[in-house]
Design goal:
This protein is of the alpha+beta class. It contains 53 helices and 42 strands. It has a 15-stranded mixed beta sheet that branches. Strands 38, 39, 40, 41 and 42 form a five-stranded mixed beta sheet that branches. The protein starts with 5 loop residues before the first helix and ends in a 13-residue tail after the last helix.
């Protein structure tokens, strides 16, 4: 039945009270059987008992299995001792009783009480037991367990389906353990006789594992009928603390736990086990009953047991333990207490066994098989919660921690929401501990590797055995921490693996590689192909198990480990050269990659591969060869003998012989080594130095090489032949009668013109014919005598003259190479004509034809060097003259030369050159440009003084009028020539004119008039920027009268700017004489001056410019602040002022600031204009806009008028000041109100004043709706507007402006304060309430831009009754009807009466209302106000500022 409402709940209570109470019954037997059904683990009874022993701080545990015969002997009064009892048959004897005992702390009363209670675990957080059901695992084999501890016992038996416990005292003579402590024993009479539970060896292994992580237990023995058949002992060394690297994130993800420290210690286990147990290890052949219990050994086993034959074995293990601090939130801690029945520990630990290597040589170490590293991922590594559970860790080692298990203690609970959080946090610690161990182990490997690298072997490498040992150790660490799928929960392994990688902030993992310990990002998967030629590329060592291990897969998934990529190969090839055999493998890989076609960017890969790869040539390890330098290769059919030196760009034949030529061509683009490439290598300086005999020193060697070329000559292409010619052209490779000569210096044997010519002669005596002749001819061996030889002999012997040489050339021009003929003109071999003045004894100069002119008289008169033609008549049209002109003889002087002559220091030469230039101008017109000869003074000119001189073309002008400004002009006789042929400018440039005006302005009005009259003809030549430059330059000489802006005693001259002047007129004299200089330089000159800025009338921008240029000077010019203020008004009204001018105004001290003077100032203030103008009781100063405040609060200004400069109080002026950046006065004043003796906000005066202000604010804001800051509806809410009274109200004002500060304290009657979204109106009871102060304070919070007049208006509204306001035109009724406020129409007078503390006046005013026609309703409302305003003098509490 569901109860969904109150009536249903009442019905439920009635029914519960009326019913009868009945107990809830539990079938205990069925409950225990269901609990035991979950204990499916092997040896679960002993696991629980051993855990209880360790919780009881036991050191020794004994487990006894009793046969019936042994029990009978114990029960016989004259029983024999255990040592003399016969040893039973281990194979077939059934057992009737099991006994488990330990020497731990005897049971206390609380322990006995818990023992008989199901599901009441040990509340001690230091103990493993949690659920209180471990003891009841005994009922899986017995129905009547019997417990003895200390001096008490407790037995259990069944009554029907209910379990009953009976408890009693033991006799005093109870046995003691070897440790001296009393035994605590658990006797378990079996429900029915049974063989040993499983394999003896498995049970011994279970005992060995049980000792691994227990805290106190050190000695466990197995007895069969009193005979000890196995004993496991544990020894522990002292722990050593380890440093935790900073990159570990030691705090778990949910911040519950933090790893404080990690320590390590070694412990050893020794086992003394009967040899028969080792020899009968048929664990997997046992017969198992349906309940999962072994039924004994198979019948085929026939080995007899010998109780005296034992085998001893031992193992040393390293355990790492992380000490963890626990900090849980209270709510979560309560949830864990509910789930586990014990408080959460403050400190806990997590341990992990790491086994560097396993010693499996001794078969008897199989006792410790389950403790070995589980590298094969068989699931043998378990989670220990005190003892081993069925949960595997997924890696190579066991982990022990205070995980919260499932009830049957077989796995970690990852289902319960809160328990799962605890366990996952512990799993993070386990992953961190695993990562810590791995990093420490891999660091040891790295250090060992680096240490081994110091004493290197003969080949500079670490010994192979050391490398193998370190690789094995590193790969074992990787295999050990490979995380495989875990059982029964797969989540646990994933959590451990995730923590293993995420706990390190550096997100990196060091792994062992073939090149030492490296970052996993730098290591690649093992690949035998790349290993063959990239021996130093870090790869994982070859290990079949590691290759498929989970850690490798995890590294791949995280992008940390990759296969060797093409990029890796290219990067590694760039680092070190390859040996010959490595280079062969590298090329095989590259060619195979090309064939596979499985890579992108094929072209780029090939380019980088060729660029980065280097290798050593065979028998040459000094300098590696870049693969990019390889251009050719040798095939097996190449005509070049392999015994000759080969170029370095040729791939060694020992490598290329393994590949098909077409493959090398298609993949790498290499060509087969050609004759030209080989010959080029043969004649390089390095090869010539390398060979004792070479083709430049040995005629025989040269003949052999020439024959090799001759044999291939017919098959060579034209391009290769050209290359051969270029290569051998300048090399001494031709055997001649004069020794080894260059081809161009050698002659065929048929050339017999001169006896001493070097003719070709081969050492073998072979004739020069066919291909060899073609080869030598192609190389340049001569079949004639060169012209140069004849010229040299002509110069040295003097037997030939110029005419003879020309005749030889003309006669043999068909045989002579054209190049030789052309080179004749370059020889300094031709005689220059001797000048008339030169003495005959002086030898004639020889010169090149290009430096000489044809021998003509006109050129001789110009002093030019002429060719010596002897006594022969010169004919410009003869064959000799034509050949000479072709070879470079000059026909006439070039333009630069004739201009140089025109600038000669000799006047006669200058005149002749000018005549020659003018006469032959058509010859020079196309190339003549005076700008190309700007630095040459070749123009006849006249300066201002009439002096003749030679001028540069850019410094002289044709128009003589420009001379008045000091410019030089062309000689008057050459004016037409200067314009038409010399290309001289008519006028100077405006830039030159402006330079003259700026540097040498006219100093007299007469001169200035001449200047400006000339410039009036150039008005169109000047640009606007030119006129702006002149406008601001002092270029006008003005004669000033006495007393004008000066103290001179007589008229004087002053240079002024055009923009400071105005043309003389009556208007200018009357209106602007104080501001501008009247000038008049004549009508023509004035035209130019008007363009320069001289004004004929004044514009507003002219006044602004003058004012901003010099505000103080402008003030001095206008003569008074009133006149200055008039100009400011005009500027303020000017709406077309450009933005850039406004920006200048904001930083210019040109505004008048007014400072009230209490007494005459003694000096001017620093930082402001020095001009102080005293007017009445104030001082005016010129200041920047930011230095002047605008008055927006008359009350504040009355206090600080002597401390701050303010703007003149004119609306237009103030708006202008604000526009330029002047602050309002209230923005530089801070206020702080102090209320003394505060009253309650519910006082009569406060309540009435609030009602009045709310009512009249509605009237006031009705006309100010666009400026209202708050709405009257919001103000009417009680929490938004509060009125409070106090005895005294002090207002502290602090003015801070332009580095000055001043403070004032004022007693006020009203002030508003806004804080936390609330408006508070404070009222002072000391003195009369000033409605102006109320209005002024409220305007600051009601309006967005309060003005002085606003306070006056609001004050009037507050002080005037509603009848008067109606008469003044306020629509009171309509406005107040929108939201009526209960305040009387006569309230203001009543408030005034109250302010004067006179209740009688208030009463008399109330009576006067009737005389003024006030309604009875109004009087009634006023009476109500009277009752509210009785107590107006109550003290106020102190305020919090």
């Amino acid at each position: 039945m569901l109860f969904t409402n109150k009536s249903d709940c009442k019905t439920k209570l009635v029914q519960l009270k009326a019913g009868r109470e009945e107990g809830v019954e539990v079938d205990q037997k069925a409950l225990i059987e269901k609990i035991l059904a979950r204990y499916a683990g092997e040896f679960s009874v002993f696991r629980e008992l051993m855990q209880n022993s360790d919780d009881a701080s036991a050191k020794i545990v004994e487990i006894h299995f009793h046969t019936q015969a042994h029990l009978n002997r114990i029960n016989i009064a004259t029983q024999t001792s255990e040592s003399s009892a016969p040893f039973p048959g281990l194979k077939s004897q059934p057992f009737f009783e099991w006994v488990f005992r330990h020497d731990g702390i005897p049971f206390a009363d609380a322990d006995w009480d818990r023992l008989r209670k199901i599901a009441e675990g040990n509340p001690d957080e230091e103990k493993i037991g949690a659920f209180g059901v471990g003891f009841y695992s005994l009922f899986s084999i017995t129905d009547e367990p019997f417990v003895k501890s200390g001096n008490q016992w407790m037995g259990f038996y069944w009554k029907d389906d209910q379990l009953v416990a009976r408890r009693g005292k033991l006799p005093l003579s109870i046995g003691l353990a070897r440790s001296g402590s009393p035994w605590t024993s658990f006797s378990m009479p079996l429900r029915e006789a049974a063989l040993f539970p499983g394999s003896y060896l498995d049970f011994v292994r279970f005992l060995a594992m049980s000792l691994t992580f227990v805290r106190d237990l050190k000695d466990v023995s197995l007895y069969i009928d009193g005979h000890r058949v196995a004993r496991i002992q544990k020894g522990v060394e002292r722990a050593k603390q380890l440093a935790i690297q900073e990159y570990f994130d030691r705090t778990t993800p949910l911040r519950m736990m933090k790893v404080k420290e990690i320590h390590t210690n070694e412990f050893y286990l020794s086992a003394r086990v009967m040899k028969w147990i080792h020899e009968n290890k048929m664990e997997k052949d046992l017969v198992v009953n349906p309940q999962g219990q072994s039924t004994g050994l198979p019948a085929s086993s026939s080995i007899e047991s010998d109780p005296d034959d034992f085998q001893v074995s031992s193992i040393v293990l390293t355990i790492y333990t992380a000490q963890v601090s626990v900090r849980l939130e209270k709510e979560f801690s309560q949830e864990l207490l509910r789930a586990t029945k014990k408080k959460s520990p403050k400190i806990t630990a997590c341990s992990l066994i790491y086994i560097e290597k396993d010693d499996t040589s001794d078969e008897y170490n199989s006792v410790f098989r389950n403790l070995r590293a589980d590298l094969a991922a068989k699931g043998n590594a378990r989670i220990f919660i005190g003892h081993a559970t069925s949960q595997s860790t997924g890696m190579g080692g066991h982990i022990s921690a205070r995980f919260i298990p499932t009830v049957e203690r077989e796995s970690v609970d990852l289902v319960d929401q809160n328990v799962s959080k605890w366990n996952r946090e512990l799993l993070y610690v386990g992953g961190l501990l695993a990562r810590f161990i791995y990093d420490m182990e891999i660091s040891h490997v790295r250090d060992s590797w680096e240490e081994a690298s110091k004493p290197v072997g003969p080949d500079g490498q670490i010994g192979e055995d050391i490398t193998k040992q370190l690789e094995t150790r590193g790969t074992r660490a990787l295999q050990f921490f490979s995380f495989y799928p875990t059982t029964p929960s797969r989540v646990l392994g994933k959590e451990l693996e995730g923590a293993f990688f995420s706990c390190a902030r550096n997100k990196d993992l060091l792994v062992v590689s073939t090149a030492g310990v490296q970052s996993a990002y730098q290591v690649r998967s093992h690949n035998a192909v790349f290993k063959a030629f990239l021996s130093d590329l870090p790869m994982l060592p070859y290990n079949a198990a590691l290759r498929e291990s989970a850690i490798v897969n995890a590294l791949r998934e995280r992008g940390m480990l990759r296969d060797v990529s093409v990029q890796d190969v290219l990067d590694k090839l760039a680092q070190s050269p390859l040996r010959e055999e490595e280079m062969l493998k590298c090329l095989e890989w590259r060619i195979g990659l090309e064939a596979s076609g499985t890579f992108a960017d094929k072209k780029l890969v090939l380019q980088r591969f060729v660029k980065e790869t280097t290798f050593y040539l065979p028998n040459d390890r000094d300098e590696p060869v870049k693969l990019s330098s390889i251009k050719t290769f040798m095939s097996s059919i190449n005509a070049i003998p392999r015994t000759y030196p080969l170029p370095r760009h040729t791939l060694p034949f020992s490598i290329s012989v393994h590949f098909q030529p077409r493959t090398l061509r298609s993949v790498f683009g290499w060509d087969e080594l050609g004759i030209a490439d080989w010959i080029e290598h043969m004649v390089t300086p390095s090869t010539l130095c390398y060979l004792q005999e070479n083709m430049t020193t040995s005629a025989t060697y040269a003949e052999e090489v020439l024959n090799i070329i001759t044999n291939s000559w017919a098959t060579l292409g034209d391009g290769e032949k050209e290359r051969l010619g270029k290569i051998l052209k300048d090399k001494d490779v031709i055997p001649t009668t004069s020794g080894m000569m260059k081809p161009g210096k050698s002659y065929f044997p048929s050339v017999k013109l001169l006896d001493d010519l070097p003719n070709v002669r081969l050492p073998s005596g072979a004739s020069i014919e066919n291909n060899l002749s073609d080869l030598l001819s192609f190389l340049g061996v001569l079949d004639h005598v060169e012209i140069q030889v004849l010229i040299n002999r002509m110069i040295l012997t003097g037997n030939w003259d110029t005419r003879n040489l020309l005749d030889y050339i003309i006669t043999n021009k068909t045989r002579l190479p054209q190049k030789e003929i052309e080179n004749v003109g370059l020889e300094t071999a031709f005689l220059q004509e001797r000048s008339v003045e030169a003495p005959l004894s002086h030898s004639q100069k020889r010169a090149r034809l290009s430096d000489l002119y044809q021998p003509l008289d006109v050129l001789r008169r110009l002093g030019l060097p002429l060719l010596d033609w002897g006594a022969h008549m010169w004919c410009p049209y003869s064959d000799e003259a034509k050949l000479l002109f072709k070879l470079g003889l000059r026909v006439y002087p070039e333009l630069p030369k004739i201009l140089e002559l025109m600038a000669s220091s000799e006047e006669e030469i200058r005149k002749l050159a000018m005549q020659y230039f003018v006469f032959n101008f058509t010859r020079y017109a196309s190339t003549y440009d005076p700008r190309d000869f700007a630095d040459l003074a070749y123009i006849p000119a006249v300066n201002q003084e009439g002096t003749h001189f030679m001028s540069k073309p850019g410094d002289v002008y044709v128009n003589p009028e420009c001379s008045v400004m000091g410019f030089s002009v062309v000689n008057p006789q050459l004016q037409d020539t200067a314009r038409s042929k010399l290309c001289i400018k008519e006028h100077p440039s405006t830039k030159s004119i402006i330079k003259v005006l700026l540097e040498r302005p006219p100093k007299e009005p007469k001169t200035a008039r001449q200047y400006f009259e000339y410039l009036a003809s150039r008005i169109s030549d000047f640009s606007l920027s030119d006129y702006r430059t002149l406008q601001q330059a002092c270029i006008l000489p003005v004669m000033l009268p006495v007393g004008k802006l000066s103290t001179h005693q007589a008229p004087y001259l002053r240079m002024v700017r055009p923009d400071e002047c105005i043309f003389k007129s009556k208007e200018a004299s009357e209106n602007y004489a104080k501001l501008l200089m009247p000038v008049d330089f004549g009508s023509k000159a004035n035209i130019f001056l008007k363009e320069c800025g001289v004004k004929d009338r004044v514009k507003m921008m002219d006044i602004i410019t003058l004012l901003l240029r010099d505000p103080n000077g402008f003030l001095e010019l206008v003569g008074s602040t009133n006149e200055y203020l008039r100009h400011l008004r005009d500027i303020a009204a000017y709406k077309e002022c450009p933005q850039d001018v406004l920006e200048r105004m904001r930083s210019s001290p040109f505004l008048l600031g007014r400072l009230k003077v209490v007494q005459a100032p003694e000096g001017s203030e620093s930082g402001v204009s020095s001009v102080d103008c005293r007017r009445d009781d104030a001082i005016f100063r010129l200041l920047q806009p930011s230095q002047i405040a605008v008055v927006n609060d008359i009350d504040a200004y009355s206090l600080f008028s002597d401390s701050v400069h303010v703007a003149p109080e004119e609306e237009a002026i103030e708006a202008f000041y604000l526009k330029l950046g002047s602050p309002e006065l209230t923005t530089v004043i801070t206020e702080e109100c102090e209320a003394c003796d505060i009253e309650s906000s519910e006082s009569s005066l406060a309540t009435a004043t609030r009602s009045l202000v709310l009512e009249r604010s509605r009237l006031f804001l009705h006309e100010q709706s666009t400026r209202a800051k708050v709405k009257i509806e919001w103000l009417s809410q009680t929490d938004n507007f509060v009125v409070q009274c106090c005895e005294n109200l002090r207002l502290h004002r602090l003015m801070s402006f332009q580095g000055k500060s001043a403070s004032k304290i004022q007693m006020v009657s009203a002030r508003t304060i806004t804080a936390n979204g609330r408006i508070t109106l404070w009222l002072s009871k000391n003195g009369e309430l000033d409605m102006y102060e109320v209005a002024n304070s409220m305007c600051k919070v009601l309006l967005s831009d309060p003005r002085p007049n606003d306070s006056l208006i609001f004050s009037s509204i507050l002080s005037t009754d509603l009848h008067a306001l109606r008469r003044r035109g306020y629509n009171v009724d309509r406005i107040l009807r929108k939201q009526p406020v209960a305040v009387s129409t006569g309230e203001p007078k009543y408030l005034l009466a109250v302010q004067r503390n006179g209740s009688e006046r208030a009463q008399s005013w109330s009576e006067s209302l009737l005389e003024t026609g006030t309604t009875q309703q109004d009087v009634a409302m006023d009476s109500d106000l009277h009752s509210k305003l009785q107590d107006v003098n109550a003290p106020l509490p102190p305020t919090n500022k």
